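Re: the pair you flagged

First of the two:
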Amino acid sequence: MKRSLRVAAYAVCVESDKILLARWVGREGKKWTLPGGGIDHGEHPQDAAVREVTEETGYAVRIDALLGIDSVRRHFTRTGLRRALAKAGNATDWHGLRIVYAATVIGGELRFEENGSTDMAAWVDLADLSTLDRTDLVDTGLALARRKPPTGRTETAG
């Protein structure tokens, strides 16, 4: 089984009971998530979060605090044509480290990313989150922001 590690940085931006989200276009369809993404080689995670928020939403942000680090693990197998072209039983044990920051919008204008991993961005009422098709990262980021666990570990955040 192939093993893959992805380290990414994300921002929780909350203003006036609204949260800034980006709509991720993934394997299983479109889901709302925190703006952010993969860290480039040699890039500091804070710089990656700032860059990714700008790419996905059009906003410039200031990082206010490190909220925590989330660790997730998933298993993927190739499907359809990709599977037929790959060796039988090709699967990936994927490990994601998600560094989550609190951030404040300091400039820019809301716009959508073009030709990227997201296709929309929006301010969403916190009261409406339960109605959205969203990734678990949204709830994880909000839990970290609300509880501010001293270790920054999401299990403590709930």
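Second of the two:
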Amino acid sequence: MTGETARNATGQSLRIVRLANFVAPASGGLRTALRELGKGFRAAGHEPVLVVPGERASDRETEQGRVITLPGPLLPGTGGYRVLTDKRRVSRLLEELAPDRLEVSDRTTLRWTGKWARRARVPAVMVSHETADGVLRTWGLPEGAARRAADALNIRTAHTYARVVCTTEFAEREFVRIGARNVVRAPLGVDLAGRHPSLRDPGLRARHADEDETLVVMCSRLSVEKRPGTALDALEALRRRGRRAVLVVAGDGPLRARLEQRARERGLPVTFLGHVSDRGVLGALQASADVCLAPGPAETFGLAALEAMACGTPVVASASSALSEVIGSAGAVAADHGEAFADAVGLMLEGLEADRREAARARAECFGWETAVRAFLEAHDASTPVRPFVPGGVA
């Protein structure tokens, strides 16, 4: 970065302003990451300020630092996502906040903030939460066209920001492909105290599955890029093969009504819980499952899958996503169709339950939030914690 790094050479507190779009009350992974990183920045002695869109303006102090909400319009067809569209208002706010560092979690509608940061001489990073070509493919764009469009977008992103932060090698590839040299790696993490095998709840499990049934859980936003329909296809394949399996879906989104209709038409035992806001209840569900599914092909990390593994539950994930890096040998990956996911579930459940649950938890323990916070602060050329970092906590 620039000479601004000298300002932090003695461990001086920095105001790190973070901008994010596509965050809603029912958001999952991104909302969790923003919260935990903000808490970590604050624990390190810095001043995190998060700016997000919402229904109305607000400004409040939270455990993750100051959170400012600006009115933003609903994005049609997204099931509740809003975006910051008033550039003048955002610019004025940035000028008032006078950040020492800027962190942006939207490479499309907020990419203009990189130019603002350059004019203001504020070191800025863009965080890549999903691969551009992967998302474009899930929206139906042919592979070649998706790649060309992604490359054009990523070239502009890499030129606009001082650094691009990628959470996995998988996410980094599309920037390496275009020759970007300002990419750094910073993993995300999981609350290892709040997500634990001890959350397993026999009573909750009994409400969703009989003793001789396999409880399959999917925690995901129900939108096109997450490919939630693959979970229903996998359930149908498992039952056709004679396995007594049921599916519980935790999450909401624009595809929910269509998925519910498909489940009814096919006579599939699927329970749609909608958005589960109680983190304890969600953790108990993840810990009580036999296997969790993560079918999203464009995931660059997969926080919900990692949370399930911290609860001792193995994961079957899309082979097209970054999750093969995250789950390692403690889970399985499958091609993006129901039959392949059913194959992977069947193979995984052949082993001893105690062994697979122990392996899942052990793998999750490689991804604490403390490591993630340190990596993000290094991307900002900011000092790392001098006080003990306390992961997790209440929302």
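The longest strand covers residues 47-54.

-B.
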